[in-house]
Design goal:
Elements (H helix, E strand, L loop, with lengths): L16 H15 L13 E6 L5 H12 L3 E6 L11 H9 L4 E5 L3 H9 L5 E3 L7 H15 L6 E5 L4 H13 L2 E5 L8 H14 L3 E4 L2 H5 L4 E4 L11 H7 L7 H4 L7 E4 L11 H4 L6 H20 L2
Parallel strand pairs: 1-2, 1-3, 3-4, 5-6, 5-8, 6-7, 8-9
Helix pairs in contact: 1-5, 1-12, 2-12, 3-4, 5-6, 5-12, 6-7
Bound molecules: phosphoric acid mono(formamide)ester and norvaline.
Main location: cytoplasm
Pathway: Amino-acid biosynthesis; L-arginine biosynthesis; L-arginine from L-ornithine and carbamoyl phosphate: step 1/3
Function: Reversibly catalyzes the transfer of the carbamoyl group from carbamoyl phosphate (CP) to the N(epsilon) atom of ornithine (ORN) to produce L-citrulline.
Length: 309
């Protein structure tokens, strides 16, 4: 069981390379069929606050808690008093009296930090507008399963400089993987997060760069990654984004620039024929369903590390 110096997972910025590697190795252990039902969280209860939709996050956290001998509770902000204006701090203090951990999916990263500051129990970020750390843990597990290591591997992220991209560039930097993000002008990642990832990368030998040229980004890549062009909360921008991202689709002609043994990754849900062609999503290089399954294993490792103490 990995020993973490943290109460929470708010962003992977707080985690060292070694802590991330330990989590991934523990996740690989928990993934073995004989370890599926280890009762490491017997009787523990996780509350899961959702202010946005979810399939993978909701189901993998709930199934994971049950497999570990605990229980998970789905709390939609449409139902709980937080959605009617009860403060985050009060919600945190009340839930700390009932639960052993909280997972939250919301808009502002500050909501997650405020919840954590006012909770005596672990808080896990299940996606904000800025970060998606649980997705990155599963992605790193998938890359590790495929290549056996991270060093000197190259990831090309084609698309929006969003929450998924932010967490991935931090994860890549900490694991020593080169990372290039190709996006249209105006859709770059946050400058401060990029600078942070570049500084982390300088310590591990990973180059973290941004370009507007998808073919250049993909040249020699071992991993091609993409995500939707309009994230949750950006529905009104859908049309404008469809236009802006023209030429940034991951398809056969773009993938031709990658390493012959590249893998294609996507956090899902996917929009076929927008950010990715059906041929690539369904093709032999695609690992998207292995990646989705790995959400379960990576999060079980995280839950045990944070709540098993
Ligand atoms: N990848 C991901 O977080 O999926 P959901 O939105 O379905 O949870
Ligand atoms: N960037 C996407 C990821 C969904 C899992 C969103 O925030 O909607």
């Amino acid at each position: 069981i990995p020993t973490l110096q943290h109460k929470d997972l708010l962003t992977l910025r707080d985690y060292t390379s070694n802590e991330i590697l330990e989590l991934i190795e523990f996740a690989a252990e928990l993934k073995k069929p004989e370890n599926k039902h280890l009762p490491l969280l017997q009787g523990k209860v996780l509350g899961m606050i959702f202010e946005k939709s979810s399939t993978r996050t909701r189901v993998s956290f709930e199934a994971g808690m049950l497999q570990l001998g605990g229980h998970a509770m789905y709390l939609s902000t449409r139902d709980i008093q937080m959605g009617r204006g009860e403060t985050i701090a009060d919600t945190a203090r009340v839930l700390s009296g009932y639960l052993d951990g909280i997972m939250i999916r919301t808009f502002a990263q500050s909501t997650v930090s405020e919840l954590a500051e006012n909770s005596s129990i672990p808080v896990i970020n299940g996606l904000t507008d800025d970060y998606h750390p649980c997705q990155t843990l599963a992605d790193l597990l998938t890359i590790h399963e495929t290549f056996g290591s991270f060093k000197h591997k190259k990831m090309a992220y084609i698309g929006d400089g969003n929450n998924v991209a932010h967490s991935l560039m931090i994860g890549a930097a900490k694991m020593g993987m080169h990372f290039t993000l190709a996006c249209p002008a105006g859709y770059e990642p946050d400058q401060e997060i990029l600078a942070y990832a570049q500084a982390e990368g300088a310590k591990t030998g990973a180059d973290i760069t941004v370009t507007h040229d998808p073919a250049a980004a993909t040249a020699g890549a071992h991993v091609i990654y993409t995500d939707v062009w309009a994230s949750m909360g950006q529905e009104a921008e859908q049309e404008a984004r469809l236009k802006a991202f023209e030429g940034f689709q991951v398809n056969e002609s773009l993938a031709a620039h990658a390493d012959p043994d590249y893998i294609f990754m996507h956090c899902l849900p996917a929009h076929r024929e927008e950010e990715v062609s059906t041929a690539i999503l369904e093709g032999k290089h695609s690992v998207v369903f292995q990646e989705a399954e790995n959400r379960l294993h990576a999060q079980k490792a995280l839950l045990v590390a944070l709540m098993g103490k």
